[in-house]
Amino acid sequence: MTTDVSIWRATVLTLFPDMFPGPLGVSLAGRALGSGLWALEARDIRASATDKHRSVDDTPAGGGPGMVLRADVLAAAIDTADTTPGRPRLLMSPRGRPLTQARVAELAAGPGPLIVCGRFEGIDQRVIEARSLEEVSIGDYVLSGGEIAAMALIDACVRLLPGVMGKLASGTEESFSEGLLEYPQYTRPQEFEGRQIPEILVSGDHAKVAAWRLAQSEALTKARRPDLWAAKAAPTKKTTDG
Ligand code: ADE
Q1: Rounded Cα distance, 1 and 53, in Å
Q2: Residues 56, 15 contacting (CB under 8 angstroms)
Q3: Could you tell me the distance, in angstroms and rounded to a whole number, from the CA of residue 145 to the centre of ligand 1?
Q4: How far is the CA of 97 from the centre of ligand 1 (A)?
Q5: Per-residue pLDDT at 137
Q6: How is the chain split into domains, by residue range?
Q7: Which residues are within 8 A (CB) of 4 and not within 5 positions of it... i.e. 6 or more apart?
Q8: Which entry of 1, 45, 52, 176 is 20 to 30 Å from 98 by CA?
Q9: Superfamily of domain 173-233
Q10: 93: Cβ below 6 Å to ligand 1?
């Protein structure tokens, strides 16, 4: 395997390396992967197990259901995978800080993260602290493991990398980049089941189209995401935990 340090690289530590590239191997991200615009490395955590059963987990200290990923095994997996200083080290976890487009943009601008995918009931807290893992959640629901969450994060980053979107707009008009949800889109046919494309969009008046789209975005954001709308109204308010 060649290691080109100049390209954006996602290194994923997982118990299921066969899940990758999965959906990252098709469409926009897959084409960019194939043409060398980014790199993906899925590493098996189990390869760092040392006992004869190759065990990676054990019962929780203090009792309770499920199994916990061992600190020593995961630390060894991180240490052998991560040789780039300053590289973000993420742990996909429902208790993490919610992923935002702003954090995605930061991650896309860097060398690319090392991402640990949790499984079982959790991960020994000591490795999270000892290896400074940043816990990241993709939403308030619980997946059976971090792999699908890692794919979502990687996909969001990859589409921002130079050259990946080609002649598509660079995302400036999309949901979240201006703190607003995206306006509705239409295409031919002009009439669908009795519904017409809004008149203004076929008027050819670009200023009116832009104003209509902004108004739609604002109305949608107010109705569906009052949290985003409030943040937009008070853009200088910073979080204290970040
Ligand atoms: N692992 C399980 N659920 C998750 C979530 N919501 N976000 C990130 N990682 C997870």
Answers
A1: 28
A2: yes
A3: 7
A4: 10
A5: 98
A6: 8-158, 173-233
A7: 36, 39
A8: 45
A9: tRNA(m1g37)methyltransferase, domain 2 (1.10.1270.20)
A10: yes
Cβ–ligand 1 contact at 139 (below 6 Å): yes
Q: Is 142 in the pocket of ligand 1 (CB under 6 A)?
A: yes
Give Cβ neighbours of residue 140 (< 8 Å, ≥ 6 apart): 94, 98
Please give the pLDDT value at position 85: 83
Residue carrying structure tokens 């004869």: 52
pLDDT in tens, the chain (242 residues): 555 568 999 999 999 999 999 999 999 999 999 999 999 999 999 999 999 999 999 999 999 999 999 999 999 999 999 778 889 999 999 999 999 999 999 999 999 999 999 877 899 999 999 999 999 999 999 999 999 999 999 999 999 999 999 866 555 545 666 899 999 999 999 999 999 999 999 999 999 999 999 999 999 999 999 999 999 988 665 554 44
CA 149 – ligand 1 centroid, Å: 6
| CA 4–ligand 1 middle distance (angstroms) | 30
Angle subtended at Cα 81 by Cα 95 and Cα 43, rounded to the nearest 5 degrees: 75
On whether the CB atoms of residues 228 and 181 are closer than 8 A, the answer is: yes
pTM: 0.92
> What distance in angstroms lies between residue 117's CA and the mean position of ligand 1's atoms?
9
Position 166 scores a pLDDT of: 82
Q: In what order do the strands lie in the sheet with 8-14?
A: 38-44, 8-14, 114-117, 89-98, 134-137
Give the CATH H-level superfamily of domain 8-158.
Answer: SPOUT methyltransferase, trefoil knot domain (3.40.1280.10)
**For ligand 1, atom 6: residue with the closest CA:** 94
